[in-house]
Amino acid sequence: EDICVTSKIWVSDFGYDATKKAVARSLERLGTGYIDLLLLHQPFGDVLGSWKALEESVAAGTVRSIGVSNFLISDLEKLLAVATIVPAVNQVERHPYYQQKDLTPFLQANGIVPEAWYPLGHGAKALLAEPVFAGIASKYSKDPAQVILRWQVQSGYVAIPKSTNPHHIAQNLDIYDFALTDDEMLQVRGLDR
Questions:
Q1: Percentage above 90 pLDDT, the chain
Q2: Other C-beta atoms lying within 10 Å of the C-beta of residue 112
Q3: Could you give the 3-state DSSP secondary structure of residue 182?
Q4: CB count, 10 Å around CB of 183?
Q5: How many whole angstroms separate alpha carbon 126 and alpha carbon 145?
Q6: pLDDT value at 123 more than 80
Q7: Per-residue DSSP letters for 74-106?
Q8: At 62, is the secondary structure helix, strand, or coil?
Q9: What are phi and psi of 89, to 5 degrees?
Q10: Can you give the three-state secondary structure of 14-49, one letter per residue?
Q11: Longest C-alpha distance within the chain, in Å?
């Protein structure tokens, strides 16, 4: 109960029956009795059969929320046309160089939480060295990664940066004592490539 467990159904387990089996295997391996959030990894294969299996898992109480990953607007439109449960999350690559500007309003309009994987752009040195981030970071006594994560959060995204370094993990969480101005948000938006 102290953490939110998220897992994914891989394409090799897509299809109604295969997804039901994959959910059972995940529950057995995790030993938790339920999964908080279960995502379809990408929009290939029998997505609709897998989604039906996930909806039944929610009804059975073995999965609390379901979502998708790497889905484009067209993929979501096909799913929403038949789904009885709207995806809670769409986990997509998003960072200042790749902002998913068309996708974000669609997700928000449909009540789907946008979640950014690689929110720091693969930790690219060029991105972290952008003058925009150096200036903003200096103003708030933060580092560029913290500014980027703050931008993600202020844009309505859940950001999931990967780190095994305890210092970086602590820094990644230390982004709630400042807010970017509208002008600073626009400066970051200008970096989209």
A1: 95
A2: 20
A3: helix
A4: 7
A5: 12
A6: no
A7: HHHHHHHTT-SS--SEEEEE-BTTB--TTHHHH
A8: coil
A9: -140, 145
A10: CCHHHHHHHHHHHHHHHCCCCEEEEEECCCCCCHHH
A11: 54
Q: Mark residue 70 as left, alpha or beta (left: phi above 0; alpha: psi -120 to 50; beta: remaining).
A: left
Token reading at 82 = 């038949």
Q: What is the pLDDT of residue 4?
A: 92
pTM of the model: 0.92
* pLDDT tens figures, 140-175: 999 999 999 999 999 999 999 988 999 999 999 999
Cα separation, 95 vs 157, in Å, equals 10
CA distance 107 to 76: 9
Say how many C-beta atoms besides its own lie within 10 A of residue 182's C-beta.
8
Whether residue 39 is predicted with pLDDT greater than 90 in this model: the reply is yes
Helix (H, G, I), strand (E, B) or coil at 118: coil
16: amino acid identity, one letter: Y
The torsion angle over the Cα atoms of residues 126, 129, 132 and 133, rounded to 10 degrees, is 120
Name 180's Cβ contacts closer than 8 Å, sequence gap at least 6.
136, 147, 150, 151, 154, 188
